[in-house]
Amino acid sequence: MKVTSVETTPLVITLPEPIGSALGQLASFGCILVTLRTDEGITGENLIFTLNDRRTKVLRQMVDDLSDMIIGRDAGHIAGFWARAWTDINFLGHKGVSVVGISAIDGALWDALGKATGQPIYRLLGGAKDRVPAYHSGGLWLSRSVDELVTEAHSFVGQGFRAMKMRLGSADPKVDAARVRAVRDAIGPDIALMADANQGQTEAQAIRLGRMLEEFNLTWFEEPLPAWDLDGLARVAEALDTPIASGETEYTRYGFRRMLELRSADILMPDLQRVGGVSEFMRVGHMAEAHDVAVSSHLFPETSIQVLGALSNSIYLEYMPWFSPLYSEPLSFEAGNALVPERPGWGFTFNQDYVRHLKGQ
What structural domains does the chain harbor? Predict the structure, then answer.
């Protein structure tokens, strides 16, 4: 099965209302839909994106430029593509846009291989579980009032979720603590609650806030420090009883290796487009397992679920419904767990009617 083409389609998705975190305001996404075609009529699909449609053209160009690493070659030789592309990007560097481009094609190749074999990706990768606990991440924003936080938290519980995540980043840590208290009181002690600082703290601020939050029994305290301060993050992790989760802004096994060596986080959170795709997510997951460290995911629930289903040390799927309308099939849930699709490949295909709608806007 040879790859004949790699097509990229840019789209813009606008949120119903802007949302806010410590990173700023978010109103839209610039998406690149990747469609890989083969000489057997099988297609592989994948998705990458940018915030507020910033530098989307750069991502698209990188995918287009990397396509010559796979066109005319066996679609099943995914490791071969990865190795060629890794060498090819050496001059530009092994982080950033270059790696996102590799991730885009890597995921499309895995989707095509799954469809060619009639297997979901998680089974091709070895299979560990057919369901993963999911937490709702599509709300509880920093821009919400306390009353809105409480209403939204009740809504998530009503939808069947047993875990959810809220954002931190108030100028006064006492305000953040009060907001966490309000949500914890609303959902009770048995619902898992995570809190994400979106890299907005200094080391001293993170330790102070983290200690204030320990009474609320958080499942984790996420990304308290800027992504580049792994040494500082390790000191925060050492100082707090609450587990630290991080890694969504890290690239490839080499970045995560340093995190593991420093013990910068108790839970790693690879992002499918930044880590290097399915192939590299699995490498990171196995490295983490060798260090007795758990993994979660970052965004992309429809695709991340397949990788988490292949890892015995996966603990949570981040459910963020931003891109769900792009797919024809819904993600299924049962008793707070996301069910790994048994359909071939990702188990999700682009909704072409919705794609045409977005292109026509």
Answer: 3-119+353-359 (3.30.390.10), 123-339 (3.20.20.120)
